[in-house]
Amino acid sequence: MSDIKGTEKLVSILIVAYNADTFIDKTIRSCLEQSYQNIELLILDNKSRDNTVDVITSFNDPRIRLYRNDRNFSPYDGLNYLIERAAGDYIAIQDHDDIWFREKIDAQVTFLNDNQDFIACGTNTYFFYENRNILILIDNPAVADIVTHTSLVFRRGDFRYHTDYVLADEHFMRRVLQRSGKIACLQKPLCVHRMRADAKNLSSYRFTLSTKNIKDFFMINGVTIRSAMYFCYLLTRDVLPESLVWYIRKNITLRKKEWISLSAFKDRHPNVLL
Q1: What is the pLDDT of residues 138-162, one digit of tens each?
Q2: Nearest CA to 9 among 34, 30, 33, 40?
Q3: CATH for 11-197+257-268, among 2.60.40.10, 3.40.50.720, 3.20.20.60, 3.90.550.10?
């Protein structure tokens, strides 16, 4: 556990929240209960229509700063809004329905402090498919061009999301951050990314077919066999039968990844709030 010192770097955690009252309590708790305690938690409520604000304000913690929109921003406009108000030396991105392991920020701050040639780092991440009670461990190379967005921590600088790109998070990592340094992926799972049973994740519906989106996709990802397979996945996952999508995951695209049941995950990680 990190000791709080006057010289310890501040980490600004950013959450853009929208209609997240079912999940955001655990998300906030996983941020506030980090072993690295020198944090501020900036939350933008994106004009939620449920009890999200009530859940946020139920926390009595001076590290939380809540902002409220009178109109609905895009998630990436919301992140830019929070970046401009963040005071931290490091910026950490969190989704309103995802969970962090307690040691996540500590491990990333330690890495970035010790490796000045890296502009950012992420971690390996469990993808939790609620409708199947299955978690799949997604790992990236130790030096990566992209990491799971909810695992990302980067050095404070003049970095902003380009919101005209539909895949703005991928553009941010591959085309914005990497101009200033390398991106690492810690070879340890320290996040859980929730693939919601109601299919309301941004990632579930953000890519639509258009000339602009196709052009942007290959500008961001390059023209390779891997990017072509990813492009086909984005186009077909919402039109193929769910049983076929899962067959492809199990036997082709994710067959070499670690699959674990929800009950086994809880036995292995009893302190993770799922």
Answers
A1: 999 999 999 999 999 999 999 999 9
A2: 40
A3: 3.90.550.10
